[in-house]
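tool_call: predict_structure(chain=1)
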Amino acid sequence: MSRSLDICIASQQLTVLENERVIKRYPVSTAKKGPGQLKGSECTPTGRHKIRAKIGAGAAINSVFIGRRFTGEIYTPQLAAAEPKRDWILSRILWLSGLEPGFNRYGEVDTAWRYIYIHGCPDHLMLGMPASHGCIRMHNADVIELFDSIDAGCPVFIHE
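tool_result:
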């Protein structure tokens, strides 16, 4: 299976390709501040990437992650109300790594060390518009389905 992911910032859509043929499309939410590579920018990095690591296999839907570790919590509206400032990373994490030295890899533009992920978020935050702090957010059921359908090392192309 030769799968790859194409993420279009303009359409807020992630496309799964198999041997360059579209097999699935998902809505996503990229960065509120738009595209960009720089550390601390809160922008979604563009260019060629790969899935560096898959985190959360087997975790329950809406499992909460901090620092790529399951906290033991399950997201609920009550938990959200108690911690309104939290940037929720839920269900699964696909950690990205840039492949283009000087553009999205190494130094102040390194996607992996910016901790840029494809991850689940509270489903009500998926409004079809950019809203994240740099990551690519997905509905929880969608990110679990995607996680189960690709391997670590899967190519990812992010563009405007």
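agent: The chain is about 10% helix and 40% strand. Proceeding to next step.
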